[in-house]
Description:
Elements: E1 6-12, H1 19-27, E2 34-41, H2 47-53, E3 59-63, H3 68-78, E4 83-86, E5 92-93, H4 97-107, E6 113-122, H5 127-132, E7 142-143, E8 151-153, H6 154-160, H7 171-181, E9 186-198, H8 203-206, H9 208-227
Parallel strand pairs: 1-2, 1-4, 2-3, 6-9
Antiparallel strand pairs: 4-8, 5-9, 6-7, 6-8
Amino acid sequence: MNPPTVSCIIPVFNCERYLAEAINSILSQTYSPLEIIVADDGSTDRTGQIIAAFGEQVRCVRQANQNPSTARNLGIGAATGNFIAFLDADDLWHAEKLARQMERFQARPELDYCVTNCQNFWVPELQVEAAKFRNHRISRPMAGYVTGTLVARRAVFAKVGLLSTTFAHGDSTEWFLRAAEHGVIAELLPEVLMYRRLHLNNRSRLLAARSKDEYLRLLKFSLDQRRGVL
């Protein structure tokens, strides 16, 4: 049997500096076949030119600017593979990420989704910050319950639903909580297979003031769901 296609979705908004690196880290995967879809969330920089330079290797779908979760959902709608993966436009994958995760689906046919550990790294402009956090928990490998480590069967999104567009910062957390409520079968690989780039324009940095309130709202949302209030 031919191995299943993994549709790799890159949501992007004005990330011309790092987008080519993200695409190349997918093209460098040891696993195939792949489908690469860039979901452009209304970029106004050179994003379109960068995508075009990859020719037929990359497909682009576009929308007016909304948010990353809406762009990810746009990519899911355009995907043709039986498996879905995501990579933010400023992050990177280990070359064997998909191969190692797809091995787990082959070994465990009941598995619905697989995530991996991830590792933060700092851009050169933030080396002072990197030194400050050298022995901090955010400098160490961590369980990556984020979209950038996720590989999921496409059917899981039909069961659990798409990513919520209600939360600007906690959309992935809400999806994983919702998936658990639906009883999906998951596995965490302990290897670091995704690298999260920390730079001056990270959404987590730009939205830091709002993130605490949003996670409290997310917690209430999850509790209300469990109580059957919603």
